[in-house]
């Protein structure tokens, strides 16, 4: 299908949840300090969430900077907003070789934007919570007018404080070594600052009206005070590039980004598989914006954006070097969207493979006969949306394989009838923990977490929605593909659309925020929801992130929503670029510390650290395997043969995989099929194969078809 719009970010539907989903006006997490229109959906999984959660004192990362409400701490005893930037030589490395983790220090208050009026009664509030930006405000007390507003925008080149009749107080806990006299850059005054750690910073003061640009003076080695009643902006940036860098900052001083929007376009399938997406920033000021791009952006810049690159680069915490551009928007090109990927095994080089030998089909049918005789309800009617979804997807994989690959429509028909029955339990909201539409934050959550925040991995607090709901969306896509009439029965389609909108809505509507999970700046999703975190948002399973994008693609194809399918294709192409850059570390990786890349996967990637671990155990098969499952068509897109071979040699070769217990062994061998499909086939096709070696979200039926589709088989 050709996308129906020049911008694929078109509305899915404007409705809420179907009537069987009850609404709840109470949520365990208060909307702390959030002002403005509270009738609109609020982003729960974005970079700035620490500022409205719990103590409000944990950092937020805009990259390459992080900001933290000082709250009276540090050498400066400030109540302003501290600014930190961490160079790579400042990180702490864990034990081992490769090191178990790396972490960036927090709480280094290199520069602070404050006001003399702020003190112990200072309040932090937020408004305009959008996908790429939000505004933070500091006022003298709760309910008072904002003295300083901080527009927080991903990639912002300056940290900007907008002063409203306050006395500016520029502080540091690292101590000022020197502060220059003001140098005029047009109507903006520039102060060159060197801290006692030797780092160079720039302070730009742009007044409104008659406010004094030159009236800033250092009172001690932690404070610079400005004129009382100041109206205007103060901007701070770190300058690693000497005089040439300073001249670039000069070109942008006085302008700042306030919000961002995304647009995207894909070529009609059959002509070209390229896609582009553009981040456009709304700005204040007449000069061009200075913004930072991450490595995966720079790799895919179009020619106009590439021409806007500067020689300023700053290290990010977990995403390599950020490159500054002088531009009001940046456009990235993904030249090879996976448009031909469907339900069958697929590779980027050979596309879809369905033709298999008679012996292979016989083995698949034999496995399917056994697996479709299992009690489907016992594997899907569980007290967890995550594990229920995995169970449903398992049988969807089996039934698709039986009908389209093994050519056994009668066996598929009986399995499909059973799958519809089990899926209908969730559509009717009659599962063990029904879903609730949360009117506070605006989303669909499990009822389980109203008593236990950790229930179902924190689903009620908006953790992991793309992981959980992606399995349901994929299952629905298979059912709708095999029986299109099912889509128009009852509220089947509306229920699935509700899940898609919850974690991947294409526009900010009245009932769901835009793209709750997927971060279009970082190129992957964040799993952590409404939990305060000293290291920011995180994600543990890059592969389930990919599977959620794949589910969106296939659901869009089945319901003939060309723009949704195109968004899924674009997300997959971006993930194929971002995951090897940040999560799946081949030996050639240059973004993560060299002492760490030998782990092959990051484990849990936070905004501020990477920990080669999981939340459920430290076995290598857990840490590596959670970035493999579920093995599905997009696995070959994001997991290169080079990476898979290196990972296997590091952890699982020479019989080590055969010592792994349970379903994790099956995951490892299904992953091996990417580089050695015959060895993987031989493992799964062995006489008397033990189904206990298959994960609860996988099947022997699919694994046999998967291995055969990648080149193995009888």
From TrEMBL:
Keywords: Hydrolase
Protein's name in the database: Glycoside hydrolase family 81 protein
Organism per entry: Cenococcum geophilum 1.58
């Amino acid at each position: 299908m050709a996308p129906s719009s020049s911008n694929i970010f078109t509305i899915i539907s404007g409705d809420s949840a179907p009537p069987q989903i009850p609404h709840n006006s109470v949520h365990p997490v208060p909307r702390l300090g959030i002002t403005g229109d509270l009738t609109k959906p609020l982003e729960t999984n974005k970079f700035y969430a620490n500022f409205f959660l719990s103590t409000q004192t944990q950092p937020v990362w805009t990259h390459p900077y992080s900001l933290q409400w000082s709250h009276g701490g540090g050498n400066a005893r400030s109540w302003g907003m501290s600014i930190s930037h961490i160079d790579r030589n400042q990180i702490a490395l864990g034990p081992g070789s490769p090191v178990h983790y790396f972490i960036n220090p927090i709480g280094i208050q290199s520069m602070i934007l404050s006001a003399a009026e702020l003190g112990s009664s200072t309040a932090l509030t937020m408004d305009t919570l959008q996908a790429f930006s939000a505004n933070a405000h500091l006022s003298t007390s709760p309910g008072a007018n904002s003295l300083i507003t901080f527009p927080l925008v991903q990639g912002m080149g300056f940290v900007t404080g907008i002063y409203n009749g306050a006395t500016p107080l520029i502080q540091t806990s690292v101590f000022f070594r020197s502060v220059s006299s003001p140098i005029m850059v047009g109507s903006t005054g520039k102060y060159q600052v060197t801290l006692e750690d030797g780092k160079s910073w720039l302070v730009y003061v742009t007044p409104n009206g008659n406010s004094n640009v030159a009236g800033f003076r250092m009172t001690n080695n932690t404070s610079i005070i400005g004129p009382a009643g100041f109206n205007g902006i103060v901007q701070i940036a770190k300058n690693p590039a000497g005089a040439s860098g300073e001249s670039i900052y000069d070109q942008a001083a006085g302008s700042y980004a306030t919000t961002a929007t995304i647009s995207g376009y894909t070529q009609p399938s059959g002509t070209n598989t390229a896609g582009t997406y553009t981040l456009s920033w709304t700005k204040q000021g007449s000069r061009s914006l200075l913004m930072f791009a991450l490595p995966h952006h720079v790799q895919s810049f179009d020619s106009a954006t590439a021409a806007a690159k500067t020689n300023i680069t700053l290290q990010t915490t977990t995403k390599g070097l950020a490159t500054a551009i002088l531009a009001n928007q940046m456009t990235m090109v993904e030249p090879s969207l996976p448009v031909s990927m469907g339900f069958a095994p697929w590779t980027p080089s050979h596309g879809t493979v369905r033709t298999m030998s008679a012996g292979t089909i016989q083995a698949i049918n034999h496995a399917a006969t056994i697996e479709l005789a299992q009690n489907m309800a016992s594997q899907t009617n569980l007290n967890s949306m995550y594990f229920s979804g995995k169970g449903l997807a398992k049988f969807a994989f089996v039934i698709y394989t039986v009908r389209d690959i093994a050519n056994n429509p009668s066996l598929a028909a009986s399995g499909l009838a059973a799958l519809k029955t089990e899926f209908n339990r969730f559509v009717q909201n009659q599962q063990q923990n029904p879903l609730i539409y949360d009117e506070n934050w605006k989303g669909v959550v499990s009822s389980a977490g109203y008593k236990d925040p950790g229930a179902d991995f924190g689903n009620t607090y908006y953790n992991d929605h793309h992981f959980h709901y992606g399995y349901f969306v994929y299952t629905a896509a298979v059912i709708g593909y095999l029986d299109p009439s099912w889509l128009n029965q009852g509220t089947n389609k509306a229920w699935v659309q509700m899940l898609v909108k919850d974690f991947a809505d294409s526009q900010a509507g009245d009932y769901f925020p835009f793209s709750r999970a997927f971060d279009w700046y970082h190129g992957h999703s964040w799993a952590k929801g409404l939990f305060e975190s000293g290291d920011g948002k995180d994600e543990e399973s890059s592969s389930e992130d990919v599977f959620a994008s794949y589910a969106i693609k296939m659901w869009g194809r089945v319901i003939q929503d060309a723009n949704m399918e195109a968004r899924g294709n674009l997300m997959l192409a971006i993930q194929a670029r971002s995951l090897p850059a940040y999560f799946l570390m081949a030996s050639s990786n240059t973004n993560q510390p060299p002492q760490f890349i030998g782990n092959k996967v990051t484990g849990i990637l936070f905004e501020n650290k990477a920990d080669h671990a999981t939340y459920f155990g430290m076995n290598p098969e857990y840490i590596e395997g959670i970035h493999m499952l579920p093995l599905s068509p997009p696995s070959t897109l994001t997991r290169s043969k080079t990476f898979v071979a290196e990972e296997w040699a590091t952890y699982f070769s020479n019989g080590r995989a055969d010592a792994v217990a349970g379903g994790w062994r099956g995951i490892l061998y299904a992953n091996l099929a990417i580089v050695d499909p015959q060895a993987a086939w031989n493992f799964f096709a062995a006489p008397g194969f033990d189904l206990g070696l298959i994960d609860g979200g996988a099947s022997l039926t699919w694994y046999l078809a998967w291995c055969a589709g990648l080149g193995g088989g009888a």
